[in-house]
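thought: fold this chain, then report.
action: predict
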Amino acid sequence: MRIFGTKPEENEAAEFENALYINLAIEEINKNNEWLKNSDKPYQAMLAHIDILVMLARRFPGNANVLIKQYKTDEWRETFNEWFTRCEKKYHLNIEKASKQTLMNSLSN
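observation:
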């Protein structure tokens, strides 16, 4: 086993461990995506999972590029936008559409 430095990608044993967390975020997003397709509840956890996925993708772009499929991100965006359209009037807080769009647009980058 080779160790090149102190970063995970510089340690052969830890090099691909981040893929487990990327896959976990994707799995959670997929679960939330299915729930949002028919939900009329004004709450969701999908944006938190997307935010975590984006952080991991920025830190580990090589593995993220392999694991994150564009067709799925398009589906997530569409599902979320449809849910948001159904539920935006149910929010009790003043939630800006811009914040939703900023996070959803980060999937495109």
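thought: worth noting. The chain has a mean pLDDT of 82.
final: tokens above.
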